[in-house]
């Protein structure tokens, strides 16, 4: 008997609502939910393949435990007991600091990943936390931290209302958007142009998005910060800077003008390889637009000057008066955020409260660079990482120098992976704890609701019940927290982990004079929580304490989980609204346009600009494919093949100069090693740029990725040695790093 079930797609940041057809326990079909208040029916080929991904026969159905060197099936009780014992054997003599926690991308796509890792890290008391952020968007957090005092206050382009969108290093027609959650990004760009708006794309590759734009500029990779600085220069020099209503909330405008004086378009033109007149034109158009937004993504963050470029994106939004106004770049207000309090100065943002042991990298948002993970394990000495808990991460493929990390993982005393696959990373684990497939998991977008271009609230309960004997991912996380605390036995109660989080939040809320529940009894409030599970009770609590919440009765019309459940297609909370100065957490209570660490990094940029056109002859940039997602979607035959292949794209001039024919095998060398990949000649790239996708290299033994291993591809991150970072954020330079290319054999 077929039935349908609604499920928010967890496969990318667009968060489309899907209608799943379920036959018994199996998802046989997926289509876009036309009634979804956010996505209105949009879906992409990955969402359409939800059933195939869900039913991948290589998914692990139960825990694996290493016995006599071999991973073999075990019961959950055995697995958690082994985790408690193995971790205890490290924390006993060396302390929790000897255990690292590695959190990968899917943690922002699962409820468990949003709710439990902080408790896990807290239970360990470790400062060795590594996440995909330092392979991705950490520069944006740092720039928001300095500008607004809150690293999570990330303005998003108000796509539905803007007249002018400047996209820098983003390819939303393929990625479906990132740090700007918008289902049907392609449709929204089309609508922008249909209403007479203008789309400009800055990208060294003439991507699908660039081809859909009114204007495309292809600068040399890694030079966006200089280009954006020159735009700021033009705004000041031509008296076009006009922050409007923002002015009383700004500090540092004069310092900014002084810094920008050093970056006239003529000075950066050779470095960026963009004519000065084009840069002037970009600035003038931006200033002239009624409502405009500048938006940067991976090509502007995972680069040498990632933090400066991310900062300049919002500096341009400020100077053109577009920050925090409709049609500009605005701050979403998620339903599970804390209800807004009256504006007041905050503590501000700092980094470097501690440093990494080997290279002395500063902590950023409590994290150390993912690129430094291997050295923290394999460099002898006191404080060495001896054990690792890896949740939803595959750093052997996604972080620099996989070979070194691969060896380092093999040398750990103990490793736990929470992962549905036995892959390049989890194959090293002593205990593998597999979460159920997405159809059997509940879903709420804690992270992406804070980045969505429209405020909505949607929750999907599991579409299919758990298989007998399976644990949902929240319970796996909760039991892992207990295992860290030495409570690995079957008597340990995972509900205690949720209860602790609830108690803590309600304790702080009831003590806060600005909270709707000030002065109430936390235990009584806890008793009012609805939800069938611990994670649902936590969601109910967050919704009720949130900006649209019922405040536990203070506003009977407000949100509760029960109310959200009554609206399976979601509740629309309206377009984005201005949030300044309330959203600011800087010590000054203003937008700090020029924080000291930012100013201190400008001379490094100036030095690069002074080198002009002098740089490596060939640099590498990344690319994404619509039917792929990072390192873990190559095992679904429906999603591979066609254009989704691991090829080295080269411009025809470069291919001719290097004597490489289309389809020939190229050897590509970087500081971290070399790989071979078939050549694909295309004139979409600017000359001097080679493009390779990441997440490939499925040829290591001991994995269980049957389909992916048939066409393994090469791991682009083997070209990196982990030393090339944006210093302010610790983010790896994945775009615009030097390589050499030659014909292979
Ligand atoms: N050269 C280069 N490298 C890059 C990038 C690039 O553009 N170029 N991009 C970077 C970026 S932006 C990112 S975000 C990182 C991503 O890198 P990672 O954070 O390592 O993420 P993935 O490669 O997606 O691997 C995700 C892991 O989670 C597992 N998984 C999938 N679903 C679930 C689930 O529901 N629960 C759990 N517990 N596990 C699950 C998968 O099996 C897989 O092992 O890669 C980065 N690496
Ligand atoms: N289909 C699909 N969708 C995905 C993913 C996926 O793997 N596949 N991954 C998801 C994840 S984890 C993320 S973080 C997002 C990323 O989302 P996006 O950032 O939109 O995706 P990318 O394809 O990495 O786009 C980066 C663009 O920057 C360009 N670029 C490279 N170097 C430079 C430079 O120096 N300057 C400029 N201006 N541009 C440059 C590249 O050519 C590329 O077009 O996508 C998400 N969505
Ligand atoms: S665009 Fe993203 S969220 Fe939407 S169906 Fe595709 S993968 Fe899923
Ligand atoms: Mo990412």
Automatic annotation (TrEMBL):
UniProt keyword list: 4Fe-4S, Iron, Iron-sulfur, Metal-binding, Oxidoreductase
Keyword Iron-sulfur recorded: yes
Listed InterPro entries: Asp_de-COase-like_dom_sf, MoPterin_dinucl-bd_dom, Mopterin_OxRdtase, Mopterin_OxRdtase_4Fe-4S_dom, Prok_molybdopt-oxidoreductase
Record-linked Pfam families: Molybdop_Fe4S4 (PF04879), Molybdopterin (PF00384), Molydop_binding (PF01568)
Region (Disordered): 333-361
Domain 4Fe-4S Mo/W bis-MGD-type: 2-58
Name of the protein described by the UniProt record: Molybdopterin-dependent oxidoreductase
């Amino acid at each position: 008997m077929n039935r349908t079930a609604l499920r928010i797609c967890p496969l990318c940041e667009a968060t489309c609502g899907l209608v799943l057809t379920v036959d018994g326990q199996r998802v046989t079909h997926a289509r876009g939910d036309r009634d979804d208040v956010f996505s209105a029916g949009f879906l992409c080929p990955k969402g359409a393949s939800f059933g195939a991904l869900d039913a991948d026969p290589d998914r692990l159905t139960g825990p694996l435990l290493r016995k006599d060197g071999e991973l073999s099936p075990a019961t959950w009780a055995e697995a958690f007991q082994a985790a408690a014992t193995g971790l205890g054997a490290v924390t006993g003599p060396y302390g929790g600091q000897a255990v690292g926690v590695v959190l990968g991308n899917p943690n922002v796509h699962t409820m468990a990943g949003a709710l439990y890792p902080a408790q896990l890290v807290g239970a360990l008391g470790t400062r060795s936390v590594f996440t995909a952020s330092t392979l991705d968007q950490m520069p944006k957090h740092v720039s928001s931290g300095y500008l607004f005092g809150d690293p999570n206050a990330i303005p998003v382009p108000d796509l539905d209302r803007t007249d002018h969108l400047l996209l820098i290093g983003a390819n939303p027609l393929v990625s479906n958007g990132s740090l700007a959650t918008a289902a049907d990004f392609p449709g929204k760009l089309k609508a922008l142009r249909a209403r007479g708006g203008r789309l400009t794309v800055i990208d060294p590759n003439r991507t699908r998005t660039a081809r859909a734009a009114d204007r495309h500029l292809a600068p040399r990779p890694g030079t966006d910060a200089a280009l954006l600085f020159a735009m700021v220069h033009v705004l000041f020099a031509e008296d076009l800077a006009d922050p409007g209503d923002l002015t009383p909330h700004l500090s540092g405008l004069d310092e900014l003008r002084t810094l920008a004086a050093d970056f006239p378009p003529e000075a950066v033109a050779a470095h960026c390889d963009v004519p000065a007149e084009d840069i002037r034109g970009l600035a003038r158009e931006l200033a002239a637009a009624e409502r405009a937004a500048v938006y940067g993504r991976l090509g502007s963050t995972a680069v040498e000057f990632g933090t400066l470029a991310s900062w300049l994106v919002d500096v341009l939004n400020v100077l053109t008066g577009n920050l925090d106004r409709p049609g500009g770049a605005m701050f979403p207000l998620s339903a599970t955020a804390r209800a807004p309090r009256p504006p007041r100065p905050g503590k501000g943002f700092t980094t470097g409260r501690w440093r990494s042991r080997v290279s002395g990298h500063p902590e950023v948002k409590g994290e150390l660079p993912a690129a430094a993970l291997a050295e923290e394990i394999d460099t002898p000495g006191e404080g060495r990482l001896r054990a690792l808990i890896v949740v939803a991460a595959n750093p052997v493929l996604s972080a620099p120098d996989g070979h070194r990390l691969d060896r380092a993982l093999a040398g750990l005393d103990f490793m736990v992976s929470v992962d549905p696959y036995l892959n390049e990373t989890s194959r090293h684990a002593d205990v593998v704890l597999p979460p159920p497939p997405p159809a059997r998991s509940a879903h709420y977008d804690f992270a992406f609701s804070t980045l969505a271009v429209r405020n909505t609230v949607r929750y999907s309960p599991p579409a299919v019940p758990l298989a007998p004997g399976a644990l949902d991912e929240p319970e796996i996380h909760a039991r892992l927290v207990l295992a860290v605390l030495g409570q690995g036995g079957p008597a340990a109660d995972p509900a205690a982990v949720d209860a602790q989080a609830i108690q803590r939040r309600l304790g702080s809320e009831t003590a806060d004079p600005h909270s709707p529940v000030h002065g109430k009894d936390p235990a009584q409030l806890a008793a009012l929580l609805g939800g069938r599970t611990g994670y649902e009770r936590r969601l109910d609590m967050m919704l009720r304490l949130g900006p649209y919440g019922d405040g536990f009765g203070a506003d009977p019309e407000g949100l509760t989980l029960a109310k959200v459940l009554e609206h399976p297609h979601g509740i629309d909370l309206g377009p984005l609204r201005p949030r300044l100065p309330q959203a600011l957490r800087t010590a000054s209570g203003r937008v700090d346009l020029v924080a000291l660490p930012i100013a201190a990094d400008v001379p490094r940029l100036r030095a690069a600009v002074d080198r002009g056109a002098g740089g490596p002859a060939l640099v590498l940039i990344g690319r994404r494919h619509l039917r792929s997602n990072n390192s873990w979607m190559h095992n679904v035959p429906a999603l591979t093949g066609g254009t989704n292949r691991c090829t080295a794209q080269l411009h025809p001039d470069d291919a001719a100069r290097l004597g490489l024919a289309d389809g020939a095998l190229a050897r590509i060398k970087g500081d971290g090693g070399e790989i071979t990949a078939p050549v694909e000649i295309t004139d979409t790239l600017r000359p001097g740029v080679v493009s390779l996708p990441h997440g490939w290299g499925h040829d290591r033994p001991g994995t269980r990725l049957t389909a992916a291993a048939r066409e393994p591809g090469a791991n682009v991150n083997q070209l990196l040695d982990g030393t090339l970072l944006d210093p302010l954020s610790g983010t790896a330079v994945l775009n615009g790093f030097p390589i050499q290319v030659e014909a292979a054999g």
